[in-house]
Amino acid sequence: MKKPLIVNIALGVFMTLSSALAWFMTPSTQEQEKINLETLIPGKFGNWKIEPATLALIVDPYTQKTIEKIYSQTLSRTYINNKGERVMLSIAYGRNQITDLHVHRPEQCYLASGFDISEVTKTFIDTSIGRIPVMRLVAKQGIRNEPITYWIRIGNSITRGWIEQKIAAIAYGMTREVPDGLLFRISTISNDEQDSYRIQNAFLLDLLQAVRGDDRFWLVGKLTP
């Protein structure tokens, strides 16, 4: 058999296998569970209550319009406790994680709004229902210094950053399921970053205690105790 013919046959086989693999990894089913962020997250819990006259996120109009377009639901609130400590909460929910939540991680949103990003760190928060993997970073613009904690739930799993998101998406692609996803972000305005993370931890623990057991899945998926 002539060499060019062998090469052509090999290329044809490779292209066929590639097409088959792409078809196999294209999700064919989509979860259709219903979620209402407004009712899922209580307006008052523990020592925290909504501070109504504030915005949880300041972004440029283009970025905000894009966020509202690609997500099924969003929720932005600022909470204040009896010590006067404030935490900004932002949640974005997407029914189709294959195309939605990877677009606007906090690093990207804040960069698009003119912030400098630093101290990006992967860590964990221990809670009564399990250990939550989280990403922490600091966004700075002028005199505004904003320590941030976030995670992204894809289906049952929590991911931090682009690589973990892609691994989870590929794993679901192999099962031909389309997972839903949720971006959970809390932040504070402070130059004391360690104190900010202490406040955020306290807020998160109180929130998880206030959310009903079955509904916690929407926020954190299936945690390992």
From TrEMBL:
It comes from mine drainage metagenome. Signal peptide: none annotated. This is Methanolan biosynthesis EpsI domain-containing protein. InterPro entries: EpsI_type_B_pred (IPR054653), Methanolan_biosynth_EpsI (IPR014263). It holds the Pfam family DUF3485. Residues 10-211 form the Methanolan biosynthesis EpsI domain.
